[in-house]
Amino acid sequence: MSALGKLFRSTAFRLLLAYLFVFTVFAFFALGYVAWNARRVLDDQIVNIIEAEINGLSEQYRTGGLRRLVGTIEQRAAEPGASLYLVTTPAGERIVGNVAAIPAEVLQRPGQRETNYARAGDAEMPHRAIVRVFVLPGGFRLLVGRDVEERARLREVIRRAFGWSLLLVGVLGLLGGWFVTKRVLKRVDDMGETSRTIMAGDLSGRLRVGGAGDEFDRLAQNLNAMLERISELMAGMKEVSDNIAHDLKTPLTRLRNKADAALRSAKGMEELRAALEATIEESDNLIRVFNALLMIARLEAGNARETTGEFDAAEVARGVAELYEALAEEAGVALRAQIDQPLPVHGNRELLGQAVANLIDNALKYGAPAHPGMTATVEVTARRADGHVVIAVADRGPGIPESERGRVTERFVRLESARSRPGFGLGLSLVSAVARLHGGVLKLEDNAPGLRAVLQLPLAPAAQGQAAEHVAKRAAPPFVPVEARRAV
Amino acid sequence: MRILIIEDDPEAAAYLAKALREAGHVADHAGDGIDGYALAREGAYDVLIVDRMLPKLDGLSLIRSLREQGVDTPVLILSALGQVDDRVKGLRAGSDDYLTKPYAFSELLARIEVLARRRAVSSAGEPTVYRVGDLELDRLSHRVSRGGTEIVLQPREFRLLEYLMKNAGQVVTRTMLLEHVWDYHFDPQTNVIDVHVSRLRSKIDKGFDRPLIHTVRGAGYMVRDSATVRA
Q1: Contact B189 A357 (CB under 8 A)
Q2: For domain A302-487, which CATH number applies: 3.30.565.10, 3.10.20.340, 3.40.50.720, 3.40.50.300?
């Protein structure tokens, strides 16, 4: 695109053209008004002069009759100037005056009007004048008037001023507009340039803020804030992928070392076999981590919604608690479940099962009491509260410090105290993702002592209606049944 | 038994075929959906192992077409996808089981053996009483006894034993137990199943000379009378 083409296509230039048009129209009307007023003032002036002449002449007539009037007119008509005089017979024949020709009907009717005329010694009739006609005793006519050439000249002057000023407005407007547009275009081009460098991968680039506090500065500031946020997110992403790389590298290294050690120093089939089995076990763990990661990613993308339906969360919580009960007993932990009423939830039963399993698994792993005297207990409760289903898993262990609670639901985040135990730090991330997918939330609370993980999910819409109407109004169901969704 | 592998990755197919032959089965291989469909319709196979993503005709469509043609050979789907809804889609298309890649061969073998046998049994009708050695389980009265002595089991323990005895003589993996006894398809992360089995074992085998519940290393569990030879 050529520079000029770019200029013409810019918004600023188009705006300028529109303004120019509006200003021209205004100027046109303003000047027109001035011209009209000037003419009126001029006409008044002429009429006044005529009035004065007439007063003078009538004085002459009163003192000296027609003869003296004629004499005075003869004298005045001889003087050069814009004044016109004429005295005629009742038949319209000229007796005295400096008017050579005038339309006959003007003389027939007394009074004031504007008319064409010809001056004595100037045969043509293109002149215009304002005249007043009187009928004198005996039918004689007296005409007193004044040429209005001055007015025409004034009009000419105004017309010329009009043209020049329009030209000036146009030229100055275009020039000014060009400068303004060029300046605006430059700033926009600057921004475009900066964004291109940023797009090319240099995320540290920022838009220039001029300091004038104008709209461009504000825009630049907002865009810079956005870039800042993107950088933060990118850094976060990088941290996650770094964590993933690091946390997967560790078991991979272990895997490799095991195979290597077996290859170098295993004696006999039995040892090789054991090493291979250990290797397979280690790979299975890795596959598990990948599956969990993929699952979290898919949940966060909201992809698991197709196989949703209504199910009883109480049944799931009870079932999972029962599944872990034997394991807990083996570990010397009293796993108690307090789940009575049915809790209809809309969502995916498997996912909720997995989430509850993760919470119980965590409680069993990390929920051993700090004091040896205390009995290890894990309590699983599921109840209905305020339009929600609240599933809580509480242990009596060391808990999670308040400052760390927000962090532990992130991928691969493990507390220092948990580093020595098996696990990858994905359990709570998955629970949190499941909660969000169901339109709910995972809250980590202090069980004083211990951790209370609370999974809060919305009650299924149908059951919500039965429970309390005001609750149903509050939260829109996050899951729309498949059929209903198609119908929309 | 005769097994057809429909899988486009030649290496994976070769590995699977070799492992199946080593386990004493006959394994054929089809490289794409169309070939697989033709072979599955003509050949008398006991089990089909179908990859979900196949050239020419995808796994789900292949299974749907076979079922429409009245071919009721049990199908196990192999998939790299392995998400909850993928499994459900696979079952809806008419497959009988679903396994995610990468899989343990022992898991796959246990599943196809159960599938093939299920078909043979279902035509004969499921017995109301399972017997393994001197252990008896009555499915109607929910009673279990060994050597004439009644054994009291919790409902879940009963279902666990029922599933093990239903597949007596065959390996049942932990995942299969979680799926069939608890109806969960997720990864429990810990050896929850082992604890349940060991509890059951203490009720069934304790005090008897011949254990009936056996651990199969690297695979799962099997109920069988150690005196009888596995077929």
Answers
A1: yes
A2: 3.30.565.10
